[in-house]
Write the structure tokens for this entry.
Amino acid sequence: MRFFRMLLLSALTLVLLPVQADERSIQRLTQLLDQAQTLTARFSQLTLDGSGTQLQETSGEMALKRPGLFRWHTDAPLEQLLVSNGETVWLYDPDLEQVTIRSLDQRLTHTPALLLSGDISKIGENFEITYKEAGGVVDFILKPKAKDTLFDNLRLSFRNGVVNDMQLIDGVGQRTNILFFGVKMNQSIDTAQFNFKVPEGTDVIQE
């Protein structure tokens, strides 16, 4: 999907010490996610195929409020809007004049967009987690425990306690890179933006 993309982190010059997938890994990731009860940011996205050829590049803005409220808007010309109010997810494509509506089920909680805003108490149930840390940089590797997921591997990186970027790799080697910038945490957010009103004349697909 077009709303899952990023730019690669620059190579670290420091040696990173690995930590095994254990309770410590879960606690460290939970700590970093939990400190942002609300978050807004711009993002840039880059999609590469298995050979490294660029497939698509987009940008946009996101907002989240924990738990479960999320808004991910990709700019034109490939405009798309993903909204969740914690129970329902809307995926709106204005070019197609089409919106897909579905309940927020277990499979959707494995998507990176909703991972950032979801119930962090269950993150250890859904993923095998390892991490590396040096100075102000922390890199987590998450591998879904379920088989029916949208990616095989997710790297989520923080700089100085703030989410910086993520990279997803799917079963055919396609890479989705997302870089966040202008990140603001724990500011007041209007919750009305986490509900979606279907525009008149839009085709509705209910799943």
